[in-house]
Amino acid sequence: MKWRRQASILCLLLVAGLIAYGLWLGRVDRSQNGPIRAAAERYGVDRALVKAVVWRESKFNPAVRGRAQEIGLMQLQEAAAQEWADAEHITSFEHTHCFDPATNTMAGAPLPVTAR
Length: 116
Fold this sequence. Notes:
Lysozyme; 2 domains; 5 helices
């Protein structure tokens, strides 16, 4: 009988852990909704597309760095980020500004003119 009780407790702990993990994943998934929505609306891009790129590139972690010096949610390289800043007439732009989720999604959301 003792092993049944232990097995029941273990199952309850496992279920509770899975529920907690699911809740955590949902929170992470929604953590960047504001910047994603703002960038999608600003540039007329589907919000799901922006969110998919953010998930694929950084798993919603705004502090991530890539091997080729890409940074932030959308893993932007310096040249691409600077091109966006120039097009938006943003003076004194630095690549490190792309660690800010709002800046990063704004810089990464516009599609090249040839792709539209």
